[in-house]
């Protein structure tokens, strides 16, 4: 017997492919409410929500599209594959901790030994993390070997090509693993994201570095790496207790002393020290007390706020009651006020500089760091409906500043041959 039109229409709708939503709802071919980290339709019906598609999928080709249309061609001469670690030794930890940031080329200490141990431990069993580590090592070694010679397609070395090949493999494996996120896959994602941030710093690609920062922080928030106030009188525990704290790593990365803005060894006549600045081809050194003092003075205060933010995040990780969480909200508000005051002071000093000059790249880096701290703080202990709109506005600003920094450094490298910051 022929079915009536309503029944036929319902069957067609049920059989249509669901392209969004969690993996469970897609398999069941039902509409998902797309709540994060788990959809309420699954939770309320007693099903296991298998999560959402990989947040890294959109980046699987972007970072290497300036070399080839796809992954590195197999015909390119590559360095021999480095042996896989069998055990973790202190020299391995020291080396990776140094490779996390190009600032360490100036004997800067990051204090990231624990992060390096965690990455190396994961690399023993996780292919994506292992490929990412191999990529960072190869690209960093190439940077240190090549010195200040700008990287270009015609000057690429086997080590450089090998590093990009491993980068491609790391992102490809990560995208596959995160198609259906699990606690293990999320940990892998955040560890890889940590290394990707370092890789893009080595490559001087700050626009893509910002994308990795944003995506990693989003994963931490959506999958509740720390306890969260989900309502006025309700504290939700951390959903995944073993997720790496990517935000802590990023803050350490940016808080480390920057040799382009810290005082040099040469003291001025007033007893203060002049600062070394990175200037673009359009800028000329200006003998102004404001320019000599703005970066060290402003950076000192920003670093102090960063240290307080790390202490605050440690307290959030250990919070176990609504009362303590509410007390921490006051501390959070005070830190956000400090960031706002810092930005106002920066704008005042910038406005007083005479004659007016383009903003120093070191100052643009501080703006980048300021926005990272603000985004991290805004997302702590907060899951309110208004949060996402507020975060998105700050994320857009962060991406804009990162794009600006990348363009300025590209112009500087073209002029002077400097590859790193």
Automatic annotation (TrEMBL):
It comes from the Eukaryota. Pfam families: Zn_clus. GO terms for molecular function: DNA binding; DNA-binding transcription factor activity, RNA polymerase II-specific; zinc ion binding. The keyword Iron does not apply. Coiled coil: none annotated. Keywords: DNA-binding, Metal-binding, Nucleus, Transcription, Transcription regulation, Zinc. InterPro entries: Transcr_Regulatory_Proteins (IPR052360), Zn2-C6_fun-type_DNA-bd_sf (IPR036864), Zn2Cys6_DnaBD (IPR001138). Residues 21-49 form the Zn(2)-C6 fungal-type domain. The keyword Nucleotidyltransferase does not apply. CDD domains: GAL4. This is Zn(2)-C6 fungal-type domain-containing protein. It comes from Heterodermia speciosa.
